[in-house]
């Protein structure tokens, strides 16, 4: 093996990376691990430049969290030659992470300065990306960072004022700070997953189709996405724009299109507009020939209702009623899926420290019936005979499953660049798990992913904030979507 002279070896570091580049990566590693988004597009950029091999790319993407993916990548880069650093910076720029590229290229470690790169000033490189999907109250409870002018000699500089800041009537709301410290960086946040939906295999379909809903039509069904992003400042002055909502609607459009649904997306509807849209959707005759239906509602909300752009509320119970067995007979005995991305209250889930003690066991005696005596005694023989002659009846509401972004009374989290936590995880789970997992189990997995997420916004009420999703179900069978499989008859 050819050996470089000692001086050249020092200069090139491991397998050829320049020493100053290695120092820059090392000094900025904490910031990079917190803020860098390592997705497939990012990795493909490095593979195109022959910086990463296929096995290396796979070892990075298989990591369960963004933090671990970033750390794995940073541990490999110094060993990938003198072009690795420049290719890494190009990948950052290509994936709209210019602020991190600038942090690296302007690092004092590369310029020969002694100042720590974390103290270097980064001017307006990062947009604020944290928000809740409930309205910011006039009390200032969830008021964002603001920049406050402070005289410094002859110059005026801006500093981040502490939170929360009360808002006052008659004053123009202060702009949110555009600093790295105000960025919401969940420990496992990522840009929306765009990997193709994995297909169901014929063997899996044949072994599971008998005990599950009939999901063989093409298209599988109709899907409606209502996304309220911008609200009327006159009619709804307390409802902020839902930055990132447009990301969610596009994510849902793509994933359900790949799952063979005909997707309709409607943006910025008033409460009466949402009602009319849902009624029209429920009356579509095509429901008769398809296997299922999907409804996604993305807006600000409260417990049991979501806001229209006019500040008026649409009751979720009315939405479910519009698709029940009485009001939507075309969908009787067919699965109806709902996904609600909206706050269900104002409380911020700050989380609790995990206890090392034993887990609490379930309470005994919870199996009693809450109502009805239809099963007591031997019953009435005459009623049994009549039941056999009557037409089969259905309950008013059945065959529904609804995923909620948050628990009752709590706020739901949304990243203004990557979209909401809940929709991100639903998208990822559908793409990778729908091939062999029924929807109830998929939403259990979504719950687990949401449980592990944590907000990163030092100095704000959102720092280390938590969220917990949940779902309700009246499904009567397993609901497999059987993606990309169409049986031949």
Automatic annotation (TrEMBL):
Key words of the record: Apoptosis, Hydrolase, Protease, Thiol protease, Zymogen
Record field: catalytic activity: Strict requirement for an Asp residue at P1, with 316-Asp being essential for proteolytic activity and has a preferred cleavage sequence of Val-Asp-Val-Ala-Asp-|-
Amino acid composition bias (Basic and acidic residues), ranges on this chain: 367-389
Chain positions covered by the region annotation Disordered: 153-173, 350-389
GO molecular function: cysteine-type endopeptidase activity
SUPFAM superfamilies: Caspase-like, DEATH domain
Domain Caspase family p10: 390-483
Residue ranges of domain Caspase family p20 in the record: 219-347
Any Gene Ontology biological process: proteolysis
Entry EC no(s): 3.4.22.55
Gene3D superfamilies found in the cross-reference section: 3.40.50.1460, Caspase-like (3.30.70.1470), Death Domain, Fas (1.10.533.10)
Family in the record: Belongs to the peptidase C14A family.
Record's protein name: Caspase-2
Organism of origin: Salmo trutta
